[in-house]
Amino acid sequence: MKKNVLITGTSSGVGFECAVLFGRNHYKVYASMRNPDKGDKLRKIIEEENLNMEIIPLDVTDLSTIQSAVDSIIAKDGRIDVLVNNAGAGFGKTVEQSTEKEIRWITDTNYLGVVFCTRAVLPFMRKQKQGHIINISSVGGLVGQPFNELYCGAKFAVEGFAEALATYVTDAFNIKITNVEPGGISTEFMSSAVAKTTVEGQLSKGEYLPIFERYMAGNMKRANESEQQVYQTGQEVAQVVFSVAKNENPPLRVRTSKWAEDFCQLKTQADPDGTKLVRQIKESFL
Hints:
Layout: E1 4-7, H1 13-24, E2 28-33, H2 40-49, E3 53-57, H3 63-77, E4 82-85, H4 100-128, E5 131-136, H5 149-166, H6 169-173, E6 175-181, E7 184-185, H7 188-198, H8 209-224, E8 231-232, H9 234-246, E9 253-255, H10 258-263, H11 265-268, H12 275-285
Parallel strand pairs: 1-2, 1-4, 2-3, 4-5, 5-6, 6-9, 7-8
Helix pairs in contact: 1-2, 1-9, 3-4, 4-5
């Protein structure tokens, strides 16, 4: 039986690459995006390669669109096999200088969107006794970084949400949970994050300026160290996502590069893929 996959945030970056990769490997792909008018690049590939893919509207900050998307898939296929919670937004700005609207937006987009999309598919995955929820998290979900406290806070929340969920839905309902944790990605996501930092961040003045300048200089240095492969392409991260989706016994968490692995080592060395901790929690509570 062919599996289907719902992917959020597919207009560009990792989501776009995931949609193409799953489609080329004979999945039925529901490529969702907040604004389907931005799907022309994906439509062109669908037509040229005759991929079994449908572009559908879904805004992870709008519960009605989430439910409509899930309901439409169930009406057509009767099931959802894989959910890739990819939609997210970069943000680099101090909490002191962020507005209430920005704080709620970064939390809604990067964390609550994952929660509500997951909540929408769980009843159907439970019924079919099978499913896989893959969250595009980040090394920022394991390691806090300067000027990224709001983004990291949201990704830390994703990590905790997934870890807790995995302690009981996997054994009871055969629903697997995986967090994919990239480092830097050279996509529009990164460009957007930099724009939010430098243009809207208003960090070019005030007491944060010396710290911010050191931070940005370090970013530029890492970006130029190509031999260390700090920044991956969206395609490279998508390959990890697809590999996880094919895995019958996937890890709870996986980094996508050597740099990401090294960066998180102090947090992950005792339990790199998260499975030991999940097993310990199950033994303690269940």
